[in-house]
């Protein structure tokens, strides 16, 4: 039980600045006690302001109070040290890191991370130094916000007062003294009222943005579906065109083979007929050569009776000229090409071979299919 009492005294004998046992404790006019070095460091930072305050209750003093050693506390601390008992460990410290807001009351090289900032005191506090704002009635009325490093931005640069008013005329935050000075006669409202109005406008803007977002999402979905549909249609068209051209190529190859066979068949027939005519022509030439010799001999005979008797026999007959006509037909084939169309009809046009078939049924069919593909 006695040990419990000692532990309670240990909590009461800790400095609220360094969170350790009091070293050369001193009391200030408000009644709170600190280490001499801790309170002097705090007040050294307030020299330029000329106003000195208590780190716990924020009571201000002018001029700077003279510090006197608290003999009773010093004796208690010495007794506590002589008992050999160690002071109760302070609560877990959370030191400020890069980007954190540091406590304005903590001293030393390493300061704790601030949890809240007071807009009335214009200072930031760690968990330990924030307790007076929850315990003392005067401090409970102060407005606490999440710890921020921009406290100076909330202070009027002309009057060093808190920015609490919004000037709609100049579109800027001002303090109460600014309302009576350079902003006199302007359209001014409290910062909270302007925040509510801006919040309402922000809500309307958010609704419009959300509506626009939903519309664009719908359009994006429809566009994606249209792209997919177009790709499917294009793929189907490619497959259909491949099938059509494949059938067309097969049909052309089949017709080409048929035309080639027909041309070769006609060639064979005509060549066979021509060879027969050649044999006839050879025989006729041989016969004519023989008669030419006989006629030559007859022309030199001096026997009139023999001449008249043989003359009639040796004359060529006025007979058939079909052989010569067939010969003329094959001479014509030398300059013209025999064309056999797909419908089986034979033509003899005076055009190059590359132009054949332009009027045939097969060409019309090909042209029709090509039109379908287009």
UniProtKB/TrEMBL annotation:
GO terms for molecular function: zinc ion binding. InterPro entries: E3_ubiq-ligase_TRIM/RNF (IPR051051), TRIM8/14/16/25/29/45/65_CC (IPR058030), Znf_B-box (IPR000315), Znf_RING (IPR001841), Znf_RING/FYVE/PHD (IPR013083), Znf_RING_CS (IPR017907). PROSITE patterns: ZF_BBOX (PS50119), ZF_RING_1 (PS00518), ZF_RING_2 (PS50089). Residues 151-191 form the B box-type domain. Residues 206-240, 264-298 form a coiled coil. Gene3D superfamilies: 4.10.830.40, Classic Zinc Finger, Zinc/RING finger domain, C3HC4 (zinc finger). It comes from the Eukaryota. Keywords: Coiled coil, Metal-binding, Zinc, Zinc-finger. Residues 15-58 form the RING-type domain. PANTHER family: B-BOX DOMAIN CONTAINING, E3 UBIQUITIN_ISG15 LIGASE TRIM25-RELATED. This is Fish virus induced TRIM protein. It comes from Salmo trutta (Brown trout).
């Amino acid at each position: 039980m006695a040990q419990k009492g000692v532990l309670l005294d240990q909590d009461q004998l800790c400095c609220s600045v360094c969170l350790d046992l009091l070293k050369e404790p001193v009391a200030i006019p408000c009644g709170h006690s600190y280490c001499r070095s801790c309170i002097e460091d705090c007040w050294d930072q307030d020299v330029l302001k000329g106003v000195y305050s208590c780190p716990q209750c924020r009571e201000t003093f002018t001029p700077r109070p003279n510090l006197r050693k608290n003999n009773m506390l010093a004796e208690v601390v010495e007794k506590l040290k002589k008992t050999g008992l160690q002071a109760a460990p302070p609560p877990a410290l959370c030191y400020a890191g890069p980007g954190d807001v540091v406590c304005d009351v903590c001293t030393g090289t390493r300061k704790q991370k601030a949890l809240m900032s007071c807009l009335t005191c214009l200072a930031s506090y760690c968990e330990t130094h924030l307790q007076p704002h929850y315990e003392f009635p005067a401090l409970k009325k102060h407005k606490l916000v999440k710890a921020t490093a921009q406290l100076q931005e909330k202070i009027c640069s002309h009057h060093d007062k808190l920015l609490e008013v919004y000037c709609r005329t100049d579109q800027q935050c001002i303090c109460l003294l600014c309302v009576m000075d350079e902003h006199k006669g302007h359209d001014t409202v409290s910062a909270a009222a302007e925040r509510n109005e801006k919040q309402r406008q922000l809500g309307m803007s958010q609704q419009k943005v959300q509506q626009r977002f939903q519309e664009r999402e719908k359009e994006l979905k429809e566009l994606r579906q249209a792209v997919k549909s177009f790709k499917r249609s294009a793929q189907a068209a490619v497959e259909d065109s491949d099938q059509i051209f494949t059938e067309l190529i097969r049909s052309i190859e089949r017709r080409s083979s048929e035309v080639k066979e027909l041309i070769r068949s006609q060639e064979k027939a005509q060549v066979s007929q021509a060879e027969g005519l050649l044999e006839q022509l050879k025989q006729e030439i041989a016969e004519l050569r023989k008669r030419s010799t006989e006629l030559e001999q007859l022309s030199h005979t001096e026997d009139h009776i023999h001449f008249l008797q043989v003359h009639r026999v040796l004359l060529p007959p006025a007979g058939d000229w079909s052989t010569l006509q067939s010969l003329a037909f094959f001479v014509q084939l030398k300059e013209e090409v025999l064309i056999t169309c797909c419908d089986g009809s034979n033509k003899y046009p005076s055009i190059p071979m590359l132009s054949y078939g332009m009027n045939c049924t097969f060409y019309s069919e090909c042209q029709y299919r090509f039109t379908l593909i287009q």
